[in-house]
Amino acid sequence: MLRTYVGLILAATTSLSSASEIGGVYMETRTCAVYTGPCFANAEMGLTGKDAIMAWSIESGAHDGVDVAGLNVVVVVSANQTLGFRGVDDAKQLKSLILIDDRANSLQRQALLSFARNHAGRAGKSAVRVDIAPIRMTLDFVNLKGHLKAGKVVTLKSRKTRPGECICKNEVEYYPPLAQVDQAIPATAEQGEFRGRGLGRRWSTPGARSVYMGTFIY
Predict the structure, then answer these.
(1) CA geometry: angle at 134 spanning 195 and 188, to 5°?
(2) How many domains does the chain divide into?
(3) pLDDT value of residue 170
(4) Tens of pLDDT, residues 16-32
């Protein structure tokens, strides 16, 4: 299954700008497992998975008529309930931090903010803070190595999930990605943490099977 996903991801990545207004790659992590078995997911429900990082690296295209190719935007989510099958719509109370790429000019910053509000669902519309930060993001879909760094606030590194980490041998992509993406692949977080202000808590989830990598075309 994984080989099929990788092939589809690579095919989509090579033709992002051919028939779309805007496209690129996406990465997320949560404070719960997304590649897991039902019994483990049920054990985490209501206790964990209330926090998440959503990140878009735009490779081509424009938003609101502004070219934003080569720029990144990150949304950090904090909720009062587990972000499960309905994603950000599962929570009654939700707040977020939006991080805008510091390489963007004033028009691009507004476009990236609008992009985040449009494509992060309720999380994008529930921002209590918007900051400018140096954001760097690279994804290797073959080896599932992803690296996201947003200032001193967000760090996310991923790798392939190892066979020995599949505990019940019944693991699946249990929860869907929080954002609309194409053919997302699950991975393990070597490092996943939020160390910022404004959301009332900080967190770290190393070793969790909590990452999705994918492409998007909007």
Answers:
(1) 55
(2) 1
(3) 72
(4) 444 458 999 999 999 99
Q: Is the pTM of this model over 0.85?
A: yes
How many other CB atoms are there within 10 angstroms of residue 4's CB atom?
A: 9
Check residue 197 and report its DSSP letter.
S
Task: Show Cβ contacts of residue 106 under 8 Å, excluding neighbours closer than 6 positions.
Answer: none
Please write the tens of the pLDDT for every residue from 91-136: 999 999 999 999 999 999 999 999 999 999 999 999 999 999 999 9
Residue closest to 159 by CA, chosen among 43, 13, 29, 57: 29
What is the residue range of 138's domain? Answer: 2-16+25-217
Q: Strands 94-101, 127-133: parallel, antiparallel or unpaired by DSSP?
A: parallel
Sign of the C-alpha dihedral computed for residues 175, 121, 111 and 15 taken in this order? positive
Structure tokens, 86 = 């309905």
Whole-number Å distance between alpha carbons of 160 and 176: 18
N-terminal to C-terminal alpha carbon distance within the chain: 25
Planar angle of CA 128, 132, 84, nearest 5 degrees: 50
pLDDT band at 148 (very low <50, low <70, confident <90, very high): very high
Tell which residue, 25, 98, 88, 16, has the closest CA to residue 51: 88
CB within 8 Å of 59: residues ≥ 6 apart: 13, 16, 17, 23, 24, 25, 69, 70
CA distance 144 to 160: 5
Q: What amino acid occupies position 87? A: G
State the pairing for strand pair 127-133/135-140.
Answer: unpaired
